[in-house]
Design goal:
It is a single chain. The protein is mainly beta. The chain contains 1 helix and 14 strands.
């Protein structure tokens, strides 16, 4: 897997006194890659079909009440920065036409009967080349950004849980942010790979070797409307649902999780039958 920050940190270790503890080891950076060839560039830039029209009305705002909000991933209000990769709807009524896409549409266990997948998917195997800005987005918010306006009745820290599915070696991370800010606490949302089933996760990848992955969270500074955002990190990522809770001890949801929250304004369609 690739370094979440896409950069190599040079650390100088000075001689420490006997009372000083050694700093934990940083994860090694990936070796430098040779320059991208024109053949590689064109292979990773196939023509994109038109974007799906959002299912949610343009004025849709979700409502966070009592410190909780639950949203279907397919109910994004808009999508931006999608010239190279794009999120496509999958349901009984929506079948992505972007290629390549090695994963079949499987919606029988998707919450609301639909999910979104970022395509085309050219970074599938660990042995293949991940190219930042093409099939991997190391810079949060730089590629394929989904927007979800939410009215928060309470400011504070909200812990982020997301439901995703990994089908190959390189499709188990994405980026989370708020109001186009991308804090480390939402950077490189990490999920188990090759599970081929939906999974609720609440972790960002640890930057320190041997340390557990910390919880994912977003700080909401004021009550009112803020836009929760998700951007591509690895193409092929399948995204079904997310929730934000002020409860740090919130238990991992089972199945499709809690029902979607009511709306503050706007309109979303009913669940799509498989």
């Amino acid at each position: 897997m690739r370094n979440c920050f896409g950069a190599t940190a040079l650390v100088l270790v000075l001689a420490a006194g006997p009372a000083e503890a050694a700093e934990p080891a940083k994860k090694p950076a990936d070796p430098p890659r040779p320059a991208l060839t024109e053949v590689e560039r064109m292979a990773n830039l196939p023509p994109l079909p038109a974007a799906d029209q959002p299912l949610a009305a343009p004025d849709t705002v979700f409502a966070a009440t009592d410190g909780l909000v639950v949203v279907e991933a397919e109910h994004f209000v808009k999508q931006t920065r999608d010239m190279i990769r794009r999120w496509y709807l999958s349901s009984a009524k929506h079948k992505p036409t972007a290629k390549p896409d090695p994963d079949p549409v499987r919606v029988t266990d998707a919450s609301g009967g639909a999910y979104v997948e970022v395509l085309p998917d050219t970074f599938v195997l660990k042995s293949e080349r991940g190219i930042d800005g093409l099939n991997i987005g190391l810079d949060p918010g730089s590629m394929a950004v989904l927007h979800y306006p939410i009215h928060f009745s309470k400011p504070g820290r909200y812990y982020l849980w997301s439901r995703m599915r990994s089908n190959d070696d390189e499709d188990n991370t994405m980026q989370g942010g708020l109001d186009d800010g991308w804090p480390d606490s939402g950077r490189c949302l990490q999920f188990p790979k090759l599970q081929k089933v939906w999974f609720w996760g609440n972790a960002v990848r640890s930057l320190v070797a041997g340390q557990p992955n910390p919880q994912a969270w977003l700080d909401v500074a004021t009550a009112g409307v803020h836009t929760v955002m998700f951007s591509m990190r690895e193409d092929g990522m399948e995204f079904d649902k997310f929730l934000l809770t002020m409860d740090a001890a919130f238990k991992q949801p089972s199945g499709a999780g809690p029902p979607a929250s009511p709306l503050k304004s706007g309109k979303v369609p009913p669940p799509i039958k498989p």
